[in-house]
Amino acid sequence: MHMKVLSYVFAGLLTVTALSGCSNSTNNGGGGGNNPTTITVNFTGNPGSLAYQIGSGSYTAGTLSGNTLTFSVPNGTSNFSFAYLCGQGATLEETVINATINDGTTYAGGCASNTQLTVGSLTGSVDTSALTNPQTLEVASSQPDASYYVQIPVAQAPAFNVLAVKGTDDILLAVLDTNSAYIAAKELTSQQVPGTLNGGNTVTFGNADLTTPANITYNNLPAGATPSTYLFFSSATGGQYSLGTVTTTYPVMPATLLTGSATYELSSTAIAANGSAVSFNSFTNTGSTVTINFPNPWNCTAPVAANYPTFLLNSYNGFTGNSGRTLEASLLWIGGGNIGYSIYLVNYPDTVGSSGVTAPNLSNVSSVYPVPASGMTAFWSQGNTEFSSGKVGSTPANSTVSTVGCNGNFTVP
Questions:
Q1: I need a surface site. Which of 17, 172, 217, 222 has the fewest CB within 10 A?
Q2: Which sign does the torsion angle of CA 55, 56, 62, 66 carry?
Q3: Is the dihedral of CA 301, 302, 304, 308 positive or negative?
Q4: Whole-number pLDDT of residue 4
């Protein structure tokens, strides 16, 4: 059995999904007149500590009201930042968002849930006799952020008993052939686990359940690089499923699954000769040829070694304009007790000047914020991300996300 997490990562240390959690609001204006501008940050999960900064002032400790942090930016001031802490035990992650009132007034932040999935027995019967060369049956539980799945030989399909996520959930049944290619799929909604699939009735695969191949083409692939492409599928009912690695083709789901808001995501990454990672994510609902248009690599400048380094993020000229863009940086290190610490910076372009962005020291706000110690090896990464939708974090059907990144390490002085 396996756990597949729906995320796409460029080589280095930044996860684009985490960075895109900060979404612009549709209200992009200030307070008007002499009125302040109210900034609202809605959180999921349980951030351990909060802080915010107005202009170039000092950080102030923040407090949640319910799951919301609010603070005011006075008239005449544009820039602001907010920071929050996630993690416990072996990991501690600090995220800092730098923006202006022109970038929006409502944002989203969050900490990953530490809730462990619980599983139970799911029994059922599947008939694959009408398919050509069926080899493997995949039984996948849908989750908002992950897909838990089990693969069994088709020989066991007429009467199987597998583990699935407990509760009421959508179940994807997929059949793979002898080449491990997906050849058929069905989704059964609102199934109860523990329980019996499809009310005890045999699930029969036929011609209406067959997948068909669609082509993937690659443009601007760095010389000598081999792309690594992953396929995800979100059904119209909200089911999210990971379908593994693809290369020159991907399986188009049967028409019964391609309804409403059903969407594919193809996430592809390649490493250029200079070590720069380029990533392109395509979101499509057409089931037709997908073209991966890699951005140009980035010859970035490494940060000077420091406890709180400065990142020169605006040296990449492959993306133009500020709409739908973020500039990112991270610093990670292993501290005492083998605890992993990290600082993530997400910056809207209008907050980044020629002098770069410096990771803030928030230890004066709360002692729980991580402080890189002298002698530690710190791993850094930098990234530039562009959403074709023009809105950070927005990935509607037939949109794309392009990312370039670089990474390295230094010893903290």
A1: 217
A2: positive
A3: positive
A4: 27
What is the reported pLDDT for 214?
Answer: 95
The answer to whether residues 172 and 164 touch, using CB atoms and an 8 Å cutoff, is no
Token digits of residue 342: 């990290």
What are the pLDDT digits (tens) for 181-191? 999 999 999 99
CA within 13 Å, CB half, 37: 24
Across 313-330, average pLDDT: 91
- Residue 138, pLDDT score: 94
Asked if residue 145 lies in contact with residue 101, where contact means CB atoms within 8 angstroms, the answer is no
CA distance 380 to 329: 7
pLDDT at 31: 52
Distance between CA atoms of residues 221 and 219, nearest Å: 5
Buried b (16+ CB within 10 A) or exposed e, 236-273: eeebbbbbbebeeebbbbbeebbeeebbbbbbbbbbbe
**Domains along the chain with CATH numbers:** 2-113+298-386 (no CATH), 119-209 (2.60.40), 212-291 (no CATH)
Residue 260 predicted with pLDDT over 90: no
In whole angstroms, what is the distance from residue 289 CA to residue 154 CA?
A: 30
Using pLDDT thresholds of 50, 70 and 90, give the confidence band for residue 34.
confident
Q: Which amino acid does the sequence have at 51?
A: A
More confident residue, 27 or 176: 176
Assigned token pair, 81: 């930042």
pLDDT tens for 196-213 read 999 999 999 999 999 999
Give me the DSSP letters along 363-379.
TTT-TTS--PPTT-EEE
Helix (H, G, I), strand (E, B) or coil at 54: strand
Q: In 3D, which of 322, 263, 267 has the Cα closest to residue 15?
A: 267
- Under DSSP, the state recorded for 398 is T
Contacts of 157 (CB under 8 A, 6+ apart): 125, 126, 127, 128, 137
245 HSE (CA, 13 A, CB side): 6
Q: What is the pTM of this model?
A: 0.85
- Which of 162-194 are b and which e, b meaning 16 or more Cβ less than 10 Å from the residue's Cβ? bbbbbeebbbbbbbbbeeebbbbbbbbeebebe
Q: Which two tokens stand for residue 391?
A: 């809105």
Model confidence at 14, pLDDT cuts 50, 70, 90, reads very low
- Local structure of residue 359 (DSSP, 8 states): -
